[in-house]
Amino acid sequence: VLLCGTTMKLCRAEYRTIAKFTDQLRPTRQCMKMLKDRFPNHSQSTLLSIFSLEYQKRMKRSLVRHHNWIILKCYYGTLWILCCLVPQVDLSPSLMARLLVERFLEEQQGSVSSKQVLNSMLREPSLIPDMQLAKHVEQCTINDCCYGPLVDCIKHAIGQEHEEILREKLRERNLSFLDENHLRAKGYDKTPDIILEVPIAVEGHIVHWIESKASFGDEQSHRTYLNDQFWSYWNRFGPGLVIYWYGFIAELDCQRDRGILLKDCFPSDIITLCHRLGES
Amino acid sequence: MAALLESLLQSEVELNRALNWLRRRKGYENDDHHLLLKVRKEEFVPFLLNFLRDQSSNTLTHGPSTPAKTPSSSRPLRAQGYSSERRGNRSSTGQGSRSTSRVQLFSPVSHTSQVDNPNELDTQLIGSQGLTGISTFSSPSFSSGWSPAARHTPSERRSAQRPCLADFMTSSPETQSSPTLQQHRGRRRSGPFGASATNRQMGARSGHLEDSGRWDGAGRKGKCGGKISEPVSPPTQVELNFNNLEDFPPVGKSLVSPVTTKPSRRINPTPVSAERPNSKPKSCFTSTPLSQPCSPPSMPESMGTAPSATSPLCLQEERELLKKERSKLAQQTSSPLKPIPGVCTPTRPVRPGPKATPDPQTPCPDPAKVTNASELNLLAELYCACISENLVPCVFLELFFVLQLLTTRSVFASETEEQAHSVHVGKTDALERAYLGNVHNCVYFAVRVLENHFALLSHLDRCTLRLLAENERVGAFSPALRDRLVQTQDTCRAKVLPDPTTFIHSVPFQPATDNRTNFSSDKAFHIFKKQRDIFYELLREWEDYHKEPGWEFEAALGNRVRTMVSQLTAAGNHCHFARLFQKQLVQMCKGPRVLGSPSDAPDADLLGMVGADSLGRLKRLQERLIQPQALSGPCPPPSFPGHQEFFKDFLQTASCCQLNQHLKDGLCQQLLQLNEVSILGPEATSAAGEEGADGDMEQQDEKQRFSSVLLVARLLAKFLGFISFLPYQTSEAPSREIQEAAIALRSKCAPVLDVCGVLRSCVHRKRTVLTVPWLVEFLSMLDYTGPFLPCYRTALGLLLQLYRRMRLSQGQFYLNQLLLVAVLGWLFQIPVFPEDLFFSVDIKDELEELENHISSQGLDCLALVDQQLLYTCCPYLGEFRKLLAAFVSGSASKTGGLIRKITPTSAEPRGPPTNRSQQKLHLDLEQAFFHNQPPSLKRTVEFVAERVGSNCVKHIKATLVSELVKGGEKTLRDGLGSEGVNAAKLNVSICAQLCDAGMQALERATRFCSANAPRAVRVLLPEETSETVMTTAESITTRLATEKACSWLSSNITTLIKREWKSSFERVMKNVPCPANTESADTDGTGQSLQLLRNFSGQDAVSSCPPDCTHKAPLSSDVIIEIKEVLSIAVGPRTEEEVLMVQQIDTLLYKVGQTLRCRKFMSSVAEQMLLRCTVLLACKLVLGELPLMSSFESTKRAGVDVRSLLEDFVLLWTNIPSAPAPLHLLLSEPTLTAVLHASDMQRRNYLLLITLLIEKGLLKEEEVGRHWIKLSELSWPVESIEKFQKLSLVSASPVPSVKHSDILQVSP
Cα–Cα 20 to 30 A to B660, which of A217, B211, B773, B1287? Predict the structure, then answer.
């Protein structure tokens, strides 16, 4: 269906080069094009994922500052120009739109509105009472390739699709498994995407569970995942496999012997317990 | 004792009689020789041991000392020459060097007043013989000099003791033969503490007079018939320490300060880092650093250290280890264990100078140069008798001593001469001769003892045997012994198996015990979820860093541990955590070999195979590359190797009483469960009796089971002991008063484990081989006071009796016994074991009663222990190999002098194997398979496999073997019928044929197992088991069963056939007509198999794709991205070049259609978004916001006809399978506003779209109307609305009439 073929593992240095390059980019399609042109050897999804990760880090660093700045100086009606054209305001258009709507509602209603209201307005700008603002918000969210309801939806879809792809691949190979829903029903406290009923060996390493990650595995996110998920799975189910469908920093794959194996695609070198069941 | 030994040496007492006496055989009672009646074995043995130690103290300079025998002060004595003082009137000059050998003469243990002068001694001996013993000296009057009040407290005693030589002289004659006196003292001492406390003091201070204090213990106090209520505690004796400068300051010096005696033990602990934390390693000659922190402060010289066989650590690493260990020790206060991390130093003073390098001039031991051979023989005989009668506290310690003698190399010419001289001078003094004063004698003696204890030797590991066999000294002194060793080594089947490295280290989550229903609240459940993860996080961190320099558990993890544990308390999750902890402990530490213990690497075995010669070279090479490995001696103090350390430190750091209590409960329960485990003997399973070859296989399984049970039980017991005695641990033995109070207090409280009960029951049921080893582990964790509590005291006493009764005798269960002897011997040597206990005689022999009515069946009567288990339980047995290997490397180094250690730059020593073999991987997978399945699955599979395997063998025997043999008989009879046949030849040839044919057994066995194992498993597993799990379980069972059957068959089928054939052959040859058995062609196994096929719903039903769907549609995420791109061009900002082709939009719409049809990868969120995007796109289209071009060539942008595109949109929305598109967006305010502001054509397109939608029924007219109304609410310029109105009127397609009216209505 997709991906695979080219390896999406990057060494740390490569990753740094890309990350450095994204520093000067804004999350627009124009910038994405620059990124693609600059690194033609990497798949678009990988680049987008990396950019997204880096950009999110950037935003986290600067959001507070911008927030204050906007509150102090800006009137929402004029901000579109600022957010898209003035490079010194390094803020994601979607986030900007969010701040503006928030501020708008605050001014209009004199109180802070709920997250749901805010989110629904961002998702559906036509709900925003101010037509002009609605138009701007729409423009912002459509143009943003790192934040916003559209991007969230895309990410969600990608995640779902890859989990399904994974299940499909497992079925193709007759590997029977329990998925999250099964596990929740049984009362497990931590649930990886897949638990294999019969473990397999991938590249000589035992695999009990598989976690699908439809993103690029950079240092920070991998560390977070390790702490919140992967080690927890290991603690309960033994060694397992993580698939970063959009690649990962090769150096992070250093826990193989400890029971966490990283791959950027569905593994081909699988050894199963019952040869008649497996294919390899 | 001295007298006895002397008499023996002078042939005054017959050796045989003495041996009989030692062996408790009949015959010596009638002896007219009084000595044997007078002397107690409990005294003689320590005396003999000390005598030997002292004898060899000159020559034995390598390796760790065999503790216990030689007090640290014996050497200084020699140097100081104060010995003269004790000799009273004796001339003092020139006596110094001789004194050691005479030391024992003054031992109060012996009937001491035989004083110094040999002549005097003789006369006294004679005198005493005449006087029915030495009652003279035991007269109470002698003891009057010791006022009970005067030495009520240790300090008083000390002060009383120090200067009063006279006092001592008067009191020394006290003997065990005075019951009254004993009673006296018993009362006076009021409890065992005084005894042990003073004993310890004595240990430290004992000079020569109290040399036997090393071994004194209760032997001295032995109460012949004296019934004393206190169970233990020998009365102490004050002794003089002539070596102590404070007690006996050199003339002219005044006594400076009162002695602050350190309690000391036989084992004088000199931990590497504790004793000299700041001093540099003394091995300045080599650049060798002190070796591993946990090893003894190894003689710094190279020869005392055997290079480790594997796992080279680089020097740097080692230094860091050392540092770490030091810093650990610095905060030892929190440690419950004694500050003896490693093994103790030799009590002998270290002489770094001459020993730093192997003496290149080491004389080659020569049988011809042996002096005093007959006396040596005699000593060896006596010594051997002591060993074989288990009269020595630790058999293996003695063996180690003997091997030290064998491999001794440091002989100083001057001393040798001097001693040779003294031999001549002191002809009269049999005890003063230097019997072991030179290498030749030492080796001679050692070889004699080794010859005598060949049975014991032959059970050592193959590598040790080989080293011993190839030891040139053994060859030179006893070629016979060498030959026997070579022989044994060849037959020695025991091999050290590579241990199956467990790769799964986590405890599986089992819903049955771990899910929400097992917790009191959601909160508790979630807290435990976190705690589990934190626990493993700590474990991983420990694994990563604990070997790094300066890393300390407390500092690095302490707070986190405590935080986590305090959360336990808050959530009441202790029992859950305790279970996790215990399971994890067993999981990680049950393995036979602990992580990171390089000493017992399997390579050592390999190395041993290459032979001494090449081994020497190898060793030397290795030695230069690798840090030298120190000998730790055969009795290292208890330790927590490998991962155990983590668990220990965790508990210590957590110090959470609730957790500990839960753990105790859990450990106790599992321990007692394991203790009750039933191991089947061969008789129980197969009635085949003698021909129970099949029993062998089952026995093998049972053996394995036993060994795993034993190892786990030992582990659990150690931790149970650790936790139980943790509150009482002190770094030093408490003072007598404190200890007394503690005993009084603690004896009221029930112990965690009824040790005595367990012990008695195991003796009664003959299960000592299982119970005693784990009890020893438990008891090894005792605190200083623990052994004096009645329950433990009794238990130790029982163990002692058990040990004494467990005389090793050749037989089927030799290794069982050997294991017990080894672990008990070890227990008796570790620091916490009260030193006075071993030779005490007042222990009631309660075992005899017990043994009188023991059950006939029990584990002790099964050959359960093999060499591997023995070495696993007693890793210190590997010390023999190290000692011998060290000798090889040392003896080969002719260069002497400086050996420079080279820091190896090699890669990681024990990197995990990168390429596991496929087979290994397969096994791992199987193991992994069971990991997350309920434990019952594994049990079932293993059980079935075992049964099927066993049945298979039976089946083969019943079918194949009997068929073959029958065929053979026929051939034989046919053959015998013909003329001139050699029956023997025929026999051989038929037998060979049969054996060849027997090989098909494997194939048959495979078939049998494949046919039977799966169905058996299938019936036994729950029907609900998923099909794949079922199939996997079946195949594993089949494999296991086949493997078991085949491995047994392949190694035994030939023997089996031969045996069967032999009996048939004999039968035929006897011309007994052979009954022609009817063919029992019962080839079972092809019967109908139970087909329990259940419906297998492998795949979840994919929500209704079209029937022919190939799931190849573009993924929704990709399509959304694409639409987003288009939309973003539409909303701008964009450049002039950014235009879209009609074709592009068309394709995009087609893709959307595809994507929406295939449901496989679709989620509802994505679907909604996709539809929304199409509507949005349609809006942009009709409003002309898309920069559209009909083709690349055309430059016109205005005239694009969007009608077909709009139709495509409508078609798409019509055909979507599920949710409707959010078409209301077309009617939203912003859209309408935009329409109102748009050009005519765009308005026309808009109306066209609306019309199409109404036509298709996608939009209802009322709905459109409703939105239209909104226009009125907006403040539109009138002309705009009019324009719109006009447009709609002229529009090509009909606009719904409703709309007209609506618009008309809104118009003013």
Answer: B773
